[in-house]
TrEMBL record:
A motif (GXGXXG) lies at residues 22-27. GO terms for molecular function: hydrolase activity. Keywords: Hydrolase, Lipid degradation, Lipid metabolism. Gene3D superfamilies: Cytosolic phospholipase A2 catalytic domain. A motif (DGA/G) lies at residues 217-219. A motif (GXSXG) lies at residues 49-53. Pfam families: DUF3734, Patatin. Residues 18-230 form the PNPLA domain. This is Patatin-like phospholipase family protein. The keyword Lipid metabolism applies. GO terms for biological process: lipid catabolic process. The keyword Lipid metabolism applies.
Length: 382
């Protein structure tokens, strides 16, 4: 299908939203999705992210359209650079693409990250920071994320973000209240600290102070910012590309590594299918309520009850195109901090392939009828 045809399909929507979960090293999958969308001329008008999804979102919103894929590529190659033995690892992966040896390589890469950090992202705190603190105080994180701040400042134009050509929302958690919050350029100025707060997952990363409050990773409460986009007022006809890094469904674990992996999958998937179905059900009710209120006789339209219902009624066409990263057979519980360059490229290529497979169904992008309620599409569910 010609790119112009995709442009025609999405033109009726009032906004095109890109919703990005958190998931550490798995976030390269989202960059592949973005490349696939851009190949077909599909550019979001709103990007919402949590954790690594917030970083990818800020890279998109903080660069002009022609620079966005390059900025994503530069970020991912900076934080997951080729190792001195990358050539040998790549050969090993080609010779045994699905074998247990790849799992060993990935485990080694993850252990290396845990011990040494990642360039341009985070580094272990110096031993002296722990030594001078005493037994009952000390650093509030294992790693220092000062390198990430410089990376963000190098690759993101925050003036562009705050000019508002694309809406940007970043999910975090207020440490004091435990409540989920969203930093949104529609209502406040966004800086590097807001992006870092969204990804400050304890105990690895320290909380980030903003205006006297401290914030942790938004994934602690909700790792999927879909609700924030669809609950925005006034509700609008919206095409959503929801990109998840954790699958809620999976096999029963057969060992402790698989137990830990499955725990993460369930915890960080944020009940993806449940939330999508819940959003669909609620918006269907709102659409039906609009139709019902329009049929009321004149003597009932101005009653207090009708006025109260009208505040909840909101007709909007919602189309959710869902892409979910599917684990490789050799991945284990360390997959979210396995930052090898080869692993990063595999994730990126998976995101690109899944997006191109999705866009092979251009009819999925057509705006649904408000009468039928929101619809959801993904390749695996068909």
């Amino acid at each position: 299908m010609r790119d112009g045809s995709f442009t025609d399909l999405i033109a009726p929507y009032e906004r095109v939203a890109l919703v990005l979960q958190g998931g550490g090293a798995l976030g390269a999958y989202q960059a592949g999705v973005v490349e696939g969308l851009f190949k077909h001329g599909i550019h979001p008008t709103w990007v919402a992210g949590v954790s690594i999804g917030a970083i990818n979102a800020a890279l998109i919103a903080g660069n002009p359209p022609e620079r966005r894929c390059a900025a994503l590529s530069e970020f991912w190659n900076r934080v997951a650079p080729p190792s001195p033995w990358e050539g040998a690892e790549s050969l090993w992966r080609r010779l045994d693409p699905d074998g247990p040896s790849i799992s060993i390589l990935n485990q080694w890469s993850a252990w290396r990250t845990a011990l040494s950090g990642q360039p341009g992202f985070f580094r272990p705190r110096a031993a002296v920071e722990w030594a001078v603190a005493g037994p009952f105080a000390g650093p509030t994180s294992v790693y220092d994320t000062a390198p990430l701040k410089k990376t963000l400042e190098d690759l993101i134009d925050f003036d562009r973000i705050n000019a508002g050509s694309i809406r940007l929302a970043l999910g975090a958690v207020n440490v004091r209240t435990g409540n989920s919050v969203y930093f949104d350029n529609a209502t406040q100025r966004i800086g590097p600290e807001h992006v870092m707060a969204s990804g400050a997952l304890p105990p690895g990363f320290a909380p980030v102070e903003i205006d006297g409050e401290f914030y942790w990773d938004g994934g602690l409460v909700s790792n999927t910012p879909l609700d924030h986009v669809l609950e925005d007022q006034p509700r609008r006809d919206t095409l959503v590309f929801q990109v998840d890094l954790w699958s809620a469904t999976g096999q029963a674990p057969r060992g402790m590594s698989e137990v830990l992996e499955r725990q993460k999958d369930i915890m960080y998937s944020s009940r993806t299918r449940f939330n999508t179905d819940k959003v669909t059900y609620e918006q269907t009710l709102r659409n039906q309520l609009v139709a019902l209120l329009d049929r009321l006789p004149d003597d009932l339209k101005d009653t207090d009850e009708a006025k109260a219902l009208r505040t909840a009624a909101c007709g909007a066409a919602i189309n959710i195109v869902h892409l979910i990263y599917r684990r490789k057979s050799y991945e284990r519980d360390t997959k979210d901090y396995e930052f090898s360059n080869a692993g990063m490229r595999e994730h990126w290529e998976s995101g690109l392939a899944d997006t191109l497979a999705t866009l092979a169904h251009p009819e999925w992008l057509r705006m649904p009828s408000r009468g039928t309620g929101p619809v959801t599409h993904d390749v695996l569910r068909g």
